[in-house]
Specification:
Structural class: alpha+beta
Radius of gyration: 43 Å
Strand content: 25-35%
Distance between the termini: 88 Å
Number of strands: 17
C-alpha cells in the first residue's frame, strides 16, 4: 500500500479499508452491519443487512437509517436518541421492532457505537443488529405458559401445590396449599417443608425418601398423614417430582390433596370387612365342630370317614378365608406364600407325614388361589390316606411359574398308583377325586397323573391368565 492509498483511507472514513475487513463484514450474514454519517445517513450496508432488512445497498445508501424504524419509534425520535446516547456514553444498546423493505416487522437486538477517525474524532456511527424475532416469540410463549401455569396454580384450590429446594425449604406456595395446610404464603416461604410432616414421619426421613425416590425414578407417590398450621392432621395423597432448569436440579414440586374422607371410609370398610371375616370364620369353625362331633358319634366307618373328610375340607376353607382377609390386597394373592401356609397347616394334622414345599412368588387372582388351594388340600390329604398305608412318609408340593402357565405338582414316594388307575373311574367311587376333577375343570387346567416309581405325581398345568 503506497502513501497515496493510506492518505485516501484517512480522507475517506467510510472506506472499509483492506480486503480482510471487508470480507469479515460481508461474511457475517446473520448480522446487519451498517455505518452512517453523524446525521444518520447510511454510508455502508453489509450483506447481512440486506439479508435481514431486504434493502439492497444501492437502495438504502444515502437515505436516513430511521427508515428501518417503526412509525411510532420515528415519531418518538428513537434513532436520534440512540445516536445521542452513543455519543455521550460510547454505546447505545437497543431491543426493538424494526421494519423490513416489504413492511414486515422483525424484533432486533442491536448496538450502535460512534465511528472515529485516526484522530479520535467521531465522524459517524456503526450499528450492528441481529434478528431475534424467533427468540422473542419463544420467550413470549414461555411467559404465556408461565402465566397460564400461574393462573392454574392460583385457581387449583383443591390441591396443595408448592415447591421446595434441595434442602427442603419452601420456595412457592399456591392458594390450595394455603387452604389445605393453613399457612399464608408469607408465613411459609423460606421455612423447612418438614414442618408439614408428622413428628414420626420426620424422624423416619419421609421427605428425604421422597427426594431420593423422585431423583431416582422421576416421581415419588406418597400417601401419609400431614400436619396443618394449627397442629391438626389430615391424610394427604400426593406426588413429588424434581424441578429442572436445563440440566440442573433447582428443587422439587409437590402436589397433594386432602383425602381424609376417603381414607376414613376405607378404614371403616376395612373394619367392617374384618368383622365380617371374623363372623364367617366363626361360622365355619362352628360347622367343623359339628362335623367332628357327628364323626365321633357314629360307629359306621364309612360315615365317620365322610364326616372327617368334610371337617378337614371346611377347616381348610376357613384357614384360606382367614389368610385372604388378613392381607391388605383383597383382589390378588401371592400363591407361593398362600400354599406354603396351607402346607404348614396340613402338616400339623398328621405327625406321621412330612410336607416339603418349594415355590417361587407368583401373584394370582384371589378366587383362582382358593381353587388351587382346595386342589392342593385334596391331593395332599389323598396322599396321607393312600400313599403310605404302613406308616408316614414325605410329600412334595412344588409350584413353578412360566410365561404361559403355572405348574403345580404334588408327589409322594409311596406305593404308587393302583394298577390300571383311571381318573374317570376313580371319580365315580371317590368324592376326593371327583372334587379334584371338578376343580381342574373350573381352573381350565390340565391334569397329568404319573406313576413316579416309587410313588405318584400329580401335575396340574394352570393357564397363566390367573396371574396378575
Amino acid at each position: 500500500m503506497n502513501i497515496c492509498d493510506r492518505q485516501q483511507m484517512r480522507d475517506d472514513p467510510f472506506d472499509p479499508g483492506t480486503d480482510i475487513y471487508r470480507h469479515i463484514v460481508e461474511s457475517a450474514t446473520d448480522y446487519a452491519v451498517i455505518t452512517t454519517s453523524l446525521n444518520g445517513i447510511v454510508t455502508t450496508w453489509s450483506a447481512g443487512a440486506s439479508n435481514l432488512l431486504g434493502y439492497a445497498s444501492d437502495e438504502i445508501i444515502g437515505q436516513s437509517l430511521s427508515l428501518i424504524f417503526t412509525f411510532d419509534d420515528q415519531l418518538q425520535g428513537a434513532f436520534f436518541a440512540e445516536m445521542h446516547t452513543a455519543l455521550s456514553d460510547g454505546r447505545a444498546e437497543d431491543n426493538r421492532w424494526h421494519v423490513r423493505k416489504d413492511g414486515s416487522h422483525l424484533w432486533a437486538s442491536g448496538l450502535i457505537t460512534p465511528l472515529k477517525n485516526d484522530a479520535g474524532q467521531s465522524i459517524g456511527f456503526v450499528k450492528i443488529m441481529r434478528d431475534r424475532t424467533r427468540s422473542l416469540e419463544e420467550d413470549e410463549s414461555v411467559r404465556s405458559n408461565e402465566e397460564r401455569l400461574r393462573l392454574i396454580l392460583k385457581s387449583a384450590t383443591d390441591y396443595a401445590i408448592f415447591t421446595f429446594d434441595q434442602q427442603g425449604f419452601v420456595l412457592s406456595w399456591n392458594a390450595g396449599a394455603r387452604r389445605i395446610l393453613g399457612y399464608e404464603e408469607k408465613e411459609i416461604i423460606g421455612r423447612d417443608a418438614r414442618i408439614l410432616f408428622t413428628p414420626e414421619e420426620r424422624e423416619a426421613g419421609a421427605l428425604e425418601w421422597e427426594i431420593e425416590t423422585a431423583n431416582r425414578e422421576g416421581r415419588a407417590e406418597n400417601e401419609r398423614f400431614h400436619v396443618r398450621k394449627g397442629g391438626s392432621r389430615f391424610w394427604g395423597s400426593g406426588l413429588t417430582m424434581p424441578l429442572k432448569a436445563r440440566h440442573d436440579k433447582v428443587g422439587y414440586l409437590k402436589i397433594m390433596r386432602d383425602d381424609t374422607e376417603r381414607h376414613q371410609a376405607e378404614e371403616h370398610q376395612q373394619v367392617m370387612m374384618r368383622e365380617m371375616s371374623h363372623r364367617v370364620k366363626n361360622s365355619l369353625m362352628l360347622v367343623t365342630g359339628m362335623l367332628a362331633m357327628q364323626a365321633r358319634g357314629t360307629d359306621v366307618a364309612e360315615v365317620k370317614r365322610a364326616l372327617t373328610d368334610a371337617e378337614a375340607r371346611v377347616a381348610t376353607i376357613a384357614a384360606m378365608h382367614d389368610h385372604l382377609w388378613r392381607q391388605t390386597d383383597l383382589e390378588t394373592i401371592d400363591l407361593a406364600d398362600f400354599l406354603e401356609g396351607l402346607c404348614e397347616r396340613l402338616a400339623q394334622t398328621s405327625n406321621q407325614h412330612a410336607i416339603v414345599f418349594e415355590g417361587t412368588p407368583c401373584r394370582i387372582d384371589a378366587d383362582g388361589a382358593i381353587q388351587v388351594a382346595l386342589l392342593v388340600n385334596e391331593l395332599v390329604t389323598n396322599a396321607f390316606k393312600h400313599a403310605y398305608p404302613s406308616g408316614g412318609g414325605r410329600i412334595d408340593v412344588k409350584i413353578e411359574t412360566a410365561a404361559e402357565e403355572i405348574l403345580l405338582a404334588v408327589s409322594d414316594q409311596g406305593v404308587g398308583l393302583p394298577q390300571g388307575f383311571d381318573l374317570r373311574d376313580s371319580s365315580r367311587n371317590s368324592l376326593g377325586m371327583k372334587i379334584i376333577g371338578g376343580l381342574v375343570r373350573q381352573l381350565k387346567a390340565k391334569l397329568a397323573i404319573e406313576d413316579a416309581a416309587p410313588g405318584a405325581r400329580f401335575a396340574i398345568h394352570v393357564p397363566a391368565a390367573l396371574k396378575t
